[in-house]
Design a protein that fits this description.
elongated; alpha+beta; two-stranded antiparallel ribbon; 3 helices
Length: about 70
């Protein structure tokens, strides 16, 4: 399948292929939904995440990304 091809190539670690790791990321994205941003959509891929958000006026994108990545 596609994710196996990506994970077996040199396109990055696929830590998010494991359900428990995906759950951690999904929970983190939802934690600030309605507080720092409005989460419109997200997709957790095997080796990266896509998210579409509407920023809250009080928070900058750099702050949000730092908090999610730490």
């Amino acid at each position: 399948d596609w994710s196996s091809d990506v994970c077996s190539s040199d396109l990055g670690d696929c830590l998010l292929k494991k359900a428990s790791n995906r759950k951690i990321v999904e929970d983190a994205l939802l934690f600030f939904d309605g507080k720092r941003y409005e989460l419109i959509a997200s997709v957790v891929m095997p080796n990266h995440v896509h998210m579409l958000i509407k920023l809250n006026e009080r928070h900058k994108l750099i702050e949000i990304m730092r908090s999610l990545k730490s």
